């Protein structure tokens, strides 16, 4: 089975609870959303077809056990679940970065799913499949990308309506790069004594001028 691949690269994981670790990235082509702050628009259409076997062969040239499948939206491609399962069976730890608009049960339950919940500032909050918040396993993570106080209040409302503190899964709050100062978001979290993890996009700090392969 072929997948349309935008890029494969080796870098430092910039987000999630795995931030700071060396990681292999498989960025798949295509996305069903058009978020206002998207920094991977180049992956909407551009890419080339590769078989799952060739993708795994390419990854095997690196000595790295951590792989992230990202996009775009990886679950837009029907072959993505098979790629994930085959990587897991090859003893990789697999992260799936997904925009939260599609049923995460499509992916192998052994995969670590990093599930976005889109806030109003994205322009795509009406596309959230909030049932995903009840499909999470203990290994998964939930991420809110926040651009304003409105987004922060929306995120806070979502998590309080789904979980009671302490939350059952790691919840990540990330400020939109160059839109919301992370220090302001940190202050809001502290003022509300909110049990979430503030994250910054480490790759944008390390390589601010790189648009791809970071």
Keywords:
214 residues, alpha/beta, TIM Barrel, 9-stranded mixed β-sheet, 22% helix
Structural features, described:
With 214 residues, the protein is α/β, with parallel strands linked by helices. It has a single domain (2-206), classed as Alpha-Beta Barrel (TIM Barrel). It has five helices and nine strands, in the order E-E-E-H-E-H-E-E-E-H-E-H-E-H. Helix 4 links the parallel strand 8 and strand 9 (197-199). The protein is globular.
How are the secondary structure elements laid out?
Blueprint: E1 2-12, E2 22-28, E3 48-51, H1 52-59, E4 66-70, H2 80-89, E5 93-98, E6 112-116, E7 141-146, H3 149-162, E8 171-175, H4 182-191, E9 197-199, H5 202-206
Parallel strand pairs: 2-4, 4-5, 5-6, 6-7, 7-8, 8-9
Antiparallel strand pairs: 1-2, 1-3
Topology, number of strands:
9
Distance between the termini: 27 Å
Task: Give the rounded overall mean pLDDT.
Answer: 93
Number of separate structural domains:
1
* Largest sheet, spatial ordering of strands: 3-1-2-4-5-6-7-8-9
Q: Strand fraction band?
A: 15-25%
Overall, the morphology is globular
- Rg from Cα: 17 Å
CATH superfamily grouping: Aldolase class I
Tell me what the CATH architecture is: Alpha-Beta Barrel
């Amino acid at each position: 089975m072929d997948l349309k691949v935008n890029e494969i690269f080796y870098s430092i994981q910039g987000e999630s609870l795995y931030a700071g670790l060396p990681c292999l990235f498989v960025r798949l082509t295509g996305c069903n959303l058009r978020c206002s702050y998207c920094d991977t628009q180049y992956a909407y259409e551009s890419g080339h077809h590769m078989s799952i076997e060739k993708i795994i062969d390419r990854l095997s040239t690196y000595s790295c056990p951590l792989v992230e499948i990202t996009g775009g939206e990886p679950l837009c491609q029907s072959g993505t679940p098979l790629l994930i399962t085959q990587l897991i069976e090859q003893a990789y730890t697999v992260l799936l970065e997904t925009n939260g608009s599609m049923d995460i049960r499509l992916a192998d339950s052994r995969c670590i799913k990093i599930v976005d919940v889109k806030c109003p500032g994205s322009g795509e909050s009406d596309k959230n499949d909030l049932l995903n918040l009840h499909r999470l396993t203990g290994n998964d993570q939930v991420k809110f990308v926040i651009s304003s106080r409105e987004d922060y209040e929306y995120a806070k409302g979502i998590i309080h309506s789904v979980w009671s503190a302490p939350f059952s899964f790691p919840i990540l709050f990330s400020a939109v790069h160059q839109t919301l100062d992370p220090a302001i978001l940190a202050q809001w979290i502290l003022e509300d004594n909110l049990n979430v993890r503030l994250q910054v996009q480490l790759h944008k700090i390390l390589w601010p001028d790189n648009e791809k392969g970071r």
